[in-house]
Amino acid sequence: MAKRTHEVMQDVDSDDDIDEDKLFEESSDDAASASDSLEDSSDIDSDDEEAQRKKKQRMKKEQLMRGEMYDDDDEEDTKSVPPSKIQERPVKRVRQPTAAPQQPPPAAAITAAPQRRCKNIYNLANMESLRAIFTKPPHTPSALVNKLVVLAVVSSNCNACRLYEANDAHKFHDKFLEVIFAYVDVAKSAEMAGAVQKDLHVRSTPTFVMVKNGTVLATVVGSDVQTLYAMIMKCVSSQ
């Protein structure tokens, strides 16, 4: 009985071994089939990607042939297209607003500036004209009666004199229209230079002598325009 039982147990064990082997073989077959199915699916995916890429290239080429623009992010697609087929993107030009032309003012608003030019300006060329300035009444020339004469003793070799004549003389001429301005250039006449030095005590240039009716009212030495202006104003006020 015990022997029979042992044989039965051996048979059961052997059956169990057979079932495990079968099970192992079946699981191996399933794994192999799953691997094959994965390979097949990967092949299908790669085929789909290749088909999509070719389709995309074909669509872009068709767009190029129709003259349409495309997205050039893909460098490979851009290089594959002939340069003659690539069109530049049109540049949108922004038109700048132009300023409205200015209208000229009406003719009634245009007024001519007043011309204020002193005509009483003289360059003394001889001693006779110099003596006339210092002639007292009743022998004073009619053009000098009750007129303020500014005698400017200058020299063409004097830098301060040239600066005054270039920058300031015309200002005094335009300001004092009723004043007579007489200029003596001591560098051109030795006789006149000696006369002003002896009679008027002129030692340097420029020197300005204010004369009225043959009488010396004031003297300004140097080219200080503010001092000269104040002195002329004072002599004009006293008339």
Q: Assembly type of the shown chains? A: single chain
Distance between the termini: 173 Å
CATH fold topology of the largest domain: Glutaredoxin
Q: C-alpha Rg, in Å?
A: 59 Å
Written as H for each helix and E for each strand, in order along the chain, the element string is: HHEHEHHEHEEH
Q: Rough shape?
A: rod-shaped
Total count of helical runs of at least 4 residues: 7
Helix content: 40-55%
Structural class: alpha/beta
Protein architecture, described:
It is a single chain. The protein is of the alpha/beta class and 239 residues long. It folds into two domains: 2-85; 121-237, 3-Layer(aba) Sandwich (Glutaredoxin). Helices cover 49% and strands 12% of the residues. It is built from seven helices and five strands, in the order H-H-E-H-E-H-H-E-H-E-E-H. The chain has a five-stranded mixed sheet with strand order 1-3-2-4-5, sandwiched between helices. 14% of the residues are buried.
Q: Any key phrases for this structure?
A:
single chain, 239 residues, alpha/beta, Glutaredoxin, 2 domains, 7 helices, 49% helix, 12% strand, rod-shaped
